[in-house]
Amino acid sequence: MTESTTSTWWELLPDGIRAEVDGYVLQDARLQAVRIVWQTCRGRGLGLHDAEGVVHDRYLHHGDRIARTPLSPLDLESLAARASGCAGRVVAVEAVWDGDTVHGWFVILLAITSEPAGEHHLATIYRETAVRNPGEARARGLLHPEAAAAGSAGRALAEHLAVPFHFGSPDTPDDGAPRWRP
To answer: What whole-number distance in Å separates Cα of residue 128 and Cα of residue 28?
Structure first.
């Protein structure tokens, strides 16, 4: 889709729909914005990929005014503070792959606890998080810098807490990789 085509689709939207889409874009709610554009124009031949292009152009238009979702901190002090707030005793730190249509693949860092048994979210590590984290500058050239950042932060936290670190698939995104077992 060319820029003029995305502009044409944008101009076909009623003012109220355009305001709604821009509202979602300014809140960094990409999926909701795409859904609105697609639902409004699909009867006129707009495909889902084209709707994504229209919304992408709105992201470019609004630039720094978008209230981006904050990135998770990866420094040891922040992760240790989050781990200390978990119910139960932390018995392991684990990194697991997940993904969605907005971010693609990303890694979730978890504290695994006993008494009560559970998993506690510590950080979500997107590619953007990994390349912005000064401690992970070396990860910029890697295929999956989010995995390198998760491995580095997870190992440091596990060492600090004197517990094992587990990452079932550090080199390849796999949301079905084996999980940590005591």
So the answer is: 15
113: helix, coil or strand? strand
Q: pLDDT tens digit string along 102-151?
A: 678 899 999 999 999 999 999 999 887 787 665 544 545 567 899 999 99
163 burial class (0-12, 13-18, 19+ CB within 10 angstroms)?
middle
Give the position of tokens 């984290």: 133
3 state SS of 50: helix
Could you please report the per-residue DSSP string of 124-163?
A: EE-HHHHHH-GGGGGGGGSS-HHHHHHHHHHHHHHHHHT-
What own/partner pairs with CB < 8 Å and gap ≥ 24 does 77-82 have?
A: 79/109, 79/122, 79/123, 79/153, 79/156, 79/157, 80/157, 80/160, 80/161, 82/111, 82/120, 82/122, 82/123
**Cα distance between residue 170 and residue 131, in whole Å:** 17
Q: How many CB atoms lie within 10 A of CB 62?
A: 14
> What's the rounded Cα separation, in Å, for the pair 181 and 13?
52
